[in-house]
């Protein structure tokens, strides 16, 4: 059903909820309004603690599910007010929620995203789609990344072989060959901003490294870089996916503490080296693809000037152009939220939302669970798309 949809997502950094209103037809998506709803620090820390196994984590998860349901509903309310748009003009909300765990490669593959959709529906009176990942996992896939299908819809080019690079807490790439008869590829490359954000929070008491300025004051420690890149994930071929439960301060310190026994390295040098880990792991995976003409970047990492400079330098060695998705007409801050609005439309239309060539699923899947308000039948009949 063509019309207006809302997309919601909280990434691995868990600092805010990205919310968008978009207009979608079969040909294109247009961003109408956007809003970022801050997640209180107390809840952010609670999320991070729950990412790692420990005591009372089930009780904490249930509390967070409720708290995030309220926050996601508030994000919708603020977004609608900012846009001067009524609930009646929205067909559905696509809510990714907040990932707590993602274990696609275990004996019992699983993933968990929370932010109770029952609360979102109750507070907004809008049909809400959530739980997008588990259908893909049930079909033998990784459950991630899911945005490549949207990237294909929005960004595929007839003449250029493109990579869409999203640098959030975790970095992921989508390969869009110009030959549309060829399957697209996509996977998580490893850490994006998540570890460097944790590092600067610990040592500078800042939420993130603005423009990569602190990193720029340091140097890349090649020995530490190579040690960090020895993690088995960087050697795996796609389809693959990862998360903060793998790449975090615990992982960094397990390598760094041993390294510091025989080597001096300043905290800013560690930060710069973490930028290099992100850049090198991304470029290594891009270079594994057959032919790439251009790379377009979205997500918070696009504002890290130090990281972007490293990426451009490494990619230029293979004559690959690197720019922001802004040059393609979509604000880099909101691409993932737009993707989940689009996935909500796919669910409403009972159309597949995954790419088996990306996730490894055995077949295309209809993604997401649909939660409807009590006046569901009249809601669909009275949607105002004017």
UniProtKB/TrEMBL annotation:
UniProt record, GO biological process: amino sugar metabolic process; peptidoglycan turnover
GO molecular function, one term: phosphotransferase activity, alcohol group as acceptor
UniProt KW keywords: Kinase, Transferase
Top EC group: transferase
Keyword presence, rRNA-binding: no
E.C. numbers: 2.7.1.170
Keyword Flavoprotein: no
PANTHER family given in the database record: ANHYDRO-N-ACETYLMURAMIC ACID KINASE
NCBIfam families: PRK09585.1-3
The name this protein goes by in its record: Anhydro-N-acetylmuramic acid kinase
Species of provenance: hydrothermal vent metagenome
């Amino acid at each position: 059903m063509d019309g207006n949809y809302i997309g919601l997502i909280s990434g691995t950094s868990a600092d805010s909820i990205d919310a968008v209103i978009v207009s979608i037809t079969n040909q294109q998506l247009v961003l109408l309004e956007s809003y970022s709803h801050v997640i209180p620090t107390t809840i952010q820390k609670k999320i991070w603690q729950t990412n790692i196994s420990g005591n009372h984590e089930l009780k904490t998860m249930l509390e967070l599910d409720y708290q995030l349901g309220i926050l996601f509903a508030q994000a919708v309310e603020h977004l609608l007010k900012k846009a001067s748009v009524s609930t009646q003009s929205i067909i559905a909300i696509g809510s990714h929620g907040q990932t707590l765990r993602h274990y696609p490669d275990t004996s019992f593959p699983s993933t968990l995203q929370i932010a109770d959709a029952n609360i979102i529906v109750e507070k907004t009176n809008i049909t809400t789609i959530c739980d997008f990942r588990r259908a893909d996992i049930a079909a033998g896939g990784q459950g991630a990344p899911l945005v490549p299908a949207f990237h294909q819809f929005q960004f595929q080019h007839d003449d250029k072989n493109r990579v869409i690079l999203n640098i959030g807490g975790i970095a992921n790439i989508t390969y869009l060959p110009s030959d549309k008869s060829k399957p697209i590829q996509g996977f998580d490359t490893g850490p994006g901003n998540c570890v460097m954000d944790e590092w600067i929070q610990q040592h500078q008491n800042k939420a993130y490294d603005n423009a990569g300025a602190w990193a720029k004051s340091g140097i890349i420690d090649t020995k530490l870089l190579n040690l960090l890149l020895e993690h088995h994930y960087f050697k795996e071929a796609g389809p693959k996916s990862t998360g903060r439960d793998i790449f975090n301060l615990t992982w960094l310190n397990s390598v760094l503490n041993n390294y510091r026994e025989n080597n001096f390295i300043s905290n800013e040098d560690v930060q710069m080296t973490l930028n290099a880990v992100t850049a090198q792991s991304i470029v290594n995976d891009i270079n594994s693809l057959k032919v790439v003409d251009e790379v377009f970047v979205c997500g918070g990492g696009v504002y890290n000037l130090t990281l972007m400079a490293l990426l451009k330098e490494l990619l230029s060695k293979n004559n690959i152009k690197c720019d922001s998705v802004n040059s393609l007409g979509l604000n880099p801050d909101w691409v993932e939220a737009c993707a989940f609005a689009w996935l909500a439309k796919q669910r409403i239309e009972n159309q597949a939302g995954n790419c088996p060539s990306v996730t490894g699923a055995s077949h295309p899947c209809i993604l997401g669970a649909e939660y409807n308000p009590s006046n569901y039948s009249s809601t669909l009949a009275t949607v105002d798309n004017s």
